[in-house]
Amino acid sequence: MLRHFTSLLFAGLVAAGGVQAAELHIGYQKSSLNLIVLKSRGTLEKQLAAQGHTVKWTEFQAGPQLLEALNVGSVDFGMTGDTPPIFAQAGGTQLVYVGFEPPKPQASALLVPADSAVRTLADLKGKRIALQKGSSAHWLLIRAVDKAGLKWDDIQPVWLTPSDARAAFESGKVDAWAIWDPYYAAAEKALKPRVLTTGQGLVANQSFYLASKTFADKQGKLLQTVFDALSDNDDFLEQKPKETAQILAKAVGLDAATFDTVVQRRPSFRVTWLNPQVVAEQQRIADRFADLKLIPKTVTVKDIVLAPQ
């Protein structure tokens, strides 16, 4: 996977002996299954140690917080959903797309209480809906509102982190909750909500690997090592789903049955370059957010996509 990464990113690096030891700082979320398993297995640490490098891992509640850390230089590399990098690019963050995972539309949903009077997407009019601003759930909700024939101003978004959103949903302070796995799967198991809609037919719900532009420009060999490790990890994830769920359960603190569901909702973990279709979909998302004036300016996604040579 991504075997031409070195030829693209190594330009500008000092020749043999010029690459100094570094600490790679990776940001991840509870939804960053590939990275969590990679961290738990310790394979990346071993590979980087052989090069004289170390790794520091930091968990974030959601993609917007992770990319804010990348913006200020405390994270070099991380994984988010489709919407956070669009908000980050519009806000001036110097980042680049370096890979993506296949669509997983079933891994996000719009939930309502089991006894809710909300039966259709059109019933969302006037309702309070919890979600993380600038997250993949934000895009899911926009698409749901569009499909219902409503305007964005017809609903009342309540901006909350996933943990705060669950508390608000559970206590009845909001009418609905737009959320992604594993929070979605955990809520299904514990709260027994009704799924008003998943992302199926609405959003691709793809995951993206991103790096700060400065890091990508200067540390091509480190990024190549990360992708080599992810490639090996992809094989583990796809060949050992039960063991994967057990590793995730231990690392995240949710039960293995929840992660069995999470893993089943993902068709693949395979990380590849962004292709023109994926870039076009990201641009469609960016354009819609700009139309709604939910980001400060329009952006051109392809400008920050690293491509194979």
TrEMBL record:
Occurrences of domain Solute-binding protein family 3/N-terminal (ranges): 23-240
Assigned keywords, A-Z: Signal, Transport
SMART domains, A to Z: PBPb
Annotated signal sequence range: 1-21
InterPro entries: ABC_SsuA_sub-bd, Solute-binding_3/MltF_N, SsuA/THI5
Main location: periplasm
Entry's localization field: Periplasm
Source taxon at top rank: Bacteria
Family: Belongs to the bacterial solute-binding protein SsuA/TauA family.
PANTHER family named in the record: ALIPHATIC SULFONATES-BINDING PROTEIN-RELATED
Protein name: Sulfonate ABC transporter substrate-binding protein
